[in-house]
DNA sequence: CCCTTCCATAGGGGATGCCTATCGCGATCA
DNA sequence: TGATCGCGATAGGCATCCCCTATGGAAGGG
């Protein structure tokens, strides 16, 4: 059974005429006759009763017609759906991002993407960089905005560096600035009780690692919150925190950002996806917007 | 798009493995690879992400898979349905028959046919021979048991003579036999008031024609009924009627059948179908049982 | 570092689809 | 009744396609 044969069969069934069906399908009449005959041979039954001037479906033809129509319609649908995916009229991107990116650069980028491709569904997964890498590997995410460097346990990922953020110490404007108002180094944080993110945030590992490298263990007054909660605790004067500079700009009043001098803390945000599977078309387009 | 390509596509999607899919489809691996590639070329999109040891569907592949499955299932269904028609496991016969045949030979034949092919729907159209011929021509009936000879207006029909019935004069046992108990000829009916069928019954034309040939116009006490009604009127003594011998045997008590001597009236029952269109398989089978 | 696994590519041979030309058969009409 | 027309079937040639075997090439595993 061939698609072409079904097309010809439906054409003859609808025109009740071999010659006119051949014209409609832009094919020579003998070709069409042959294909109908081949189909009849394969099915083992005549499909048309060829009475002179009155081509009619046999019962086998009647049985085949609705199925043939549905098969051809499904084939058209398949072609159409794939085209819509290609043309980004439909589709889905599952994007992971760290909280700071979500509140920082992402809204504007997603707005631009959605305007360009309103048919594409955008699913954002907010989480710590390590979680996101794991979810990329599991195939739950198409793309993720993660923090470099990748952990050693990371699967083969293709990464593109997007930006490097300086980390600053954020504190409440209600309290005196940390370090007494002068320059601030990591070592100065030894004296400052801190508000710390939950496990999974790369900022936690980064900060704790920097403190230990400076020779002390940081002291937490509160720990375990997400980004917004941590900033709220800082604003309430529970302690200081180390966050990306970009976050403070969006965090509203009541907070003070103090840069770190000496060996500045920074982190690099990169766009990552699995190396072994090409991301879907829509994800590639989002990557193009993010990187370009 | 080819059925074969969809088969291969589904096989790869299910095995996640080109080589094993090729084995499953009993085809060389390069052939399968080529067909998948051809399908991808036609659709303009990759269907699989060919990561080493981890073949996965792309989004285009995901979109295609359910449609491909349905298309292949429909194709199987089409083949199956046609086979069931061929094997008489399903189907329909629209059979026309005159009332006398319906009450006479038909029940036994239909019982045998239904036992042999319980999946075949039997639609019986009871009517006068002329009506049946018209309905054959219109394609409303597949087969009909009609009375020969065919009228001149008949379309091209293929007929097979089944049996020749003698016509008898039926009368009420409550009354003296027509013709005074001796032999009975058509001419004797000149004195007998008759009960006559409605127009359309070939028996009407046959009887009236015979009377006229004998030189008189028959007199009707009642006219217009179907077979059962006519027999009822005769039983009630309203007159005599000319009916097939076979009918009297099934008509119950109270009736007397008197054969016609001299030039006996008879009629020939034949099975007819259109010459220009082959009857459906199930109808041909019923014909085989009727004729054989 | 070699070997295995697995998909892609190359090239040849048989099958298949489409073409033009022609036949056969009813129907129509003079 | 014979010529013509309409329409589907058949015949034969040509291009294409599909499948085959052989081989390439890249990614893991021992």
Automatic annotation (TrEMBL), chains A, B:
Any Pfam family: HTH_1
Keyword set, alphabetical order: DNA-binding, Transcription, Transcription regulation
InterPro entries: LysR_HTH_N (IPR000847), LysR_subst-bd (IPR005119), WH-like_DNA-bd_sf (IPR036388), WH_DNA-bd_sf (IPR036390)
Gene Ontology CC terms, in alphabetical order: protein-DNA complex
SUPFAM superfamilies: Periplasmic binding protein-like II (SSF53850), Winged helix' DNA-binding domain (SSF46785)
GO molecular-function terms, A-Z: DNA binding; DNA-binding transcription factor activity
Residues covered by the HTH lysR-type domain: 1-58
Superkingdom of origin organism: Bacteria
KW Kinase (keyword) present: no
Family recorded in the similarity comment: Belongs to the LysR transcriptional regulatory family.
Name of the protein in question: LysR family transcriptional regulator
């Amino acid at each position: 059974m061939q698609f072409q044969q079904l097309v010809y069969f439906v054409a003859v069934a609808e025109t009740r005429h071999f010659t006119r069906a051949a014209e409609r399908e832009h094919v020579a009449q003998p070709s069409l006759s042959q294909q109908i005959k081949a189909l009849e041979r394969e099915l083992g039954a005549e499909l048309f009763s060829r009475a002179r001037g009155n081509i009619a479906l046999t019962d086998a033809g009647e049985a085949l017609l609705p199925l043939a129509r549905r098969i051809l319609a499904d084939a058209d649908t398949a072609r159409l759906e794939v085209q819509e995916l290609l043309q980004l009229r439909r589709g889905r991107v599952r994007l992971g991002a760290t909280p700071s990116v979500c509140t920082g650069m992402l809204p504007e980028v997603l707005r631009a993407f959605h305007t360009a491709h309103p048919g594409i569904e955008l699913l954002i997964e907010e989480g710590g960089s390590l979680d996101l890498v794991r979810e990329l590997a599991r195939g739950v995410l198409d793309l993720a905005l993660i923090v470099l460097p990748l952990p050693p346990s990371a699967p083969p990922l293709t990464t593109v560096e997007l930006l490097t953020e300086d980390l600053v110490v954020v504190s409440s404007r209600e309290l005196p600035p940390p370090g007494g108002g002068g320059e601030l180094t990591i070592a100065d944080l030894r004296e400052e009780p801190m508000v710390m993110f939950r496990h999974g945030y790369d900022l936690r590992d980064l900060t704790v690692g920097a403190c230990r490298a400076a020779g002390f263990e940081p002291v937490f007054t509160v720990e375990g919150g997400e980004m917004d909660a941590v900033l709220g605790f800082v604003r309430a004067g529970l302690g200081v925190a180390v966050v990306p500079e970009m976050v403070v700009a969006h965090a509203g009043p009541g907070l003070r950002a103090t840069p770190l001098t000496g060996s500045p803390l920074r982190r690099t945000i990169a766009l990552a996806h699995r190396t072994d599977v090409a991301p879907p078309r829509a994800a590639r387009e989002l990557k193009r917007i993010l990187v370009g």
